[in-house]
Amino acid sequence: MFGARKLRKAKELFELKQYERAIQVMESLPTFAQDNDEGQWKTLSSGKAVYSEEDIQKMQVAARDMYYKNPLARGIIETIINFTIGKECQITAGDDNEVVQEYWDEFCKVNKFDQKSKEIVRRSLRDGESFVRFFEPVDGGDGKVPLIRFVEPDEISDKSNKHSYGIETDTDDIEKVVNYHRTYIESNNTIQEEVIPAEDIIHTKIKVDSNVKRGISFFVGIASYITKYKLWLDDRIVLNKLRTMYNLIGKPTGTSPSDLASKFSDVTGKTSTGGTAKKKLPKSGSVLLTTGVEWEFKNLNINASDTAADGRAILLMIVAGSNLAEYMVTGDSSNSNFASTMVSESPAVKAFEAHQDTYEKVYKEIYTWVITYGISKGYIPEESDSKCQVEFPILIHRDMKDETESLQIQRVNNWVSNQTASAKLGYNYKEEQEQIELENSKLDDIEKQKEIEYFNKVHGLDKDKETNNEKG
């Protein structure tokens, strides 16, 4: 009788402890069964046609936060960059004069343009826009090429509120920018204002009409589903934690509860009522031998399969909003085969081509600015052409042999140049030509050395040389 009462009391105490632990688990994960993150991304999911300046700033802060904290969001942006730009896009001078190409190559080297070309894509997708500013070479240096730096979007602001969004436009043409107004904080915490001429900045904006001054983030429209998918996963994690708290039950079948309690080791100290010592569970990996006790491991009954369709439905909304193939968003191709992958890639390939078209214009604008600057300073001949050619790698390689043969046919028929064909295959034409010349020169040196050795051997010059060496 007393043993059963003690067991019941111990059971009640155990359940109370487990309940307290469950409360602690839920409090440690505040997103459980809640959408309290929705407010944080509200400006990314409101679907407004026009955003105010305050909305733009909040949107960009939320977009950056999502990019750095959410792996799904970051993966989408990086996938677009990787497919759009690849290892690097190749920009070659439209002028045959080697001085022009050398001047551009020097600009790329000084400004690390191979990285900045990708950063332009990253910033514009993440923030909705990017501002590239040109500077004169550093004073006192011997540099001849201009410098480019990024201006943070939140610094483009006119505190006088005379020009909306910090962009001054022609009174009769909103698409013609006159000046950019920059407000920033100096190192001594003083607020400074600056007016930058439009010709010194290249502003790239996305997802807006041409008469809208500022762009909006690529996350707008899909941010709420990215957040919901994160919360859906968090809920599953919390549920798993709760269900694993109750995992082992011992049922006395042929012995009394007090006998069962004696099978466990003591815990230091007595109960609050005195008498029997507290008991603790066996250590992990131990074996408990006893009679009359049936041990049962509880089935977790998580049933993750019953919610798999829900999670995939959320992901498909993200896929639809990003114009990417499902496996490009999730990194999981288990839901597709080769045929379906080929079909799903078509919209994605068209989307990447559209991105390439957008940024090709940006790179050409930067190139024109740089070459025009070089001409104005006398570093490049005045009659030089300021146009260039931008080549992106082939988006998706199906069969390298077939693609190479196709380009070879195009080259034989003079439809493409060697440089274009090389760029399509992902090679840097100039670097490869230099490497080929280097290798050919080494082969020529080897052949010449062989000819000399053969000539000496035929005419006995090697013997005369050995004789002289012995005399010496």
Kindly summarize this structure in a few lines.
This protein is of the alpha+beta class and 472 residues long. The chain is built from 15 helices and 12 strands.
Overview of this structure, please?
The chain has 472 residues and is an alpha+beta fold. The protein has a domain at 431-471. Helices cover 50% and strands 14% of the residues. It has 15 helices and 12 strands. It has helices at 2-28, 42-45, 53-69, 71-84, 98-111, 113-127, 223-243, 257-261, 308-322, 326-330, 338-376, 400-412, 418-424, 429-458, 461-471, and strands at 90-93, 129-135, 147-151, 167-170, 173-185, 191-197, 201-205, 248-252, 266-270, 277-279, 293-297, 388-391. A 3-stranded antiparallel β-sheet has the order 3-2-7. A 3-stranded antiparallel β-sheet has the order 4-5-6, with no helix packed on it. α3 packs across α4 (71-84), α5 (98-111) crosses α11 (338-376) and α7 (223-243) runs antiparallel to α9 (308-322). The longest helix has 39 residues, at 338-376. It is extended and about 105 Å long. The N and C termini lie far apart (116 Å). Mean pLDDT is 79; it is low at 30-35.
Q: Please, what is the average pLDDT?
A: 79
**Uncertain stretches:** 30-35
Q: Strands across the major sheet, in which order? A: 3-2-7
SS strand fraction: 5-15%
Radius of gyration from the alpha-carbon trace, in angstroms: 35 Å
Assembly level: single chain
Strand elements, count: 12
Through-space gap between termini: 116 Å
Secondary-structure-derived class: alpha+beta
Shape by Cα distribution: extended
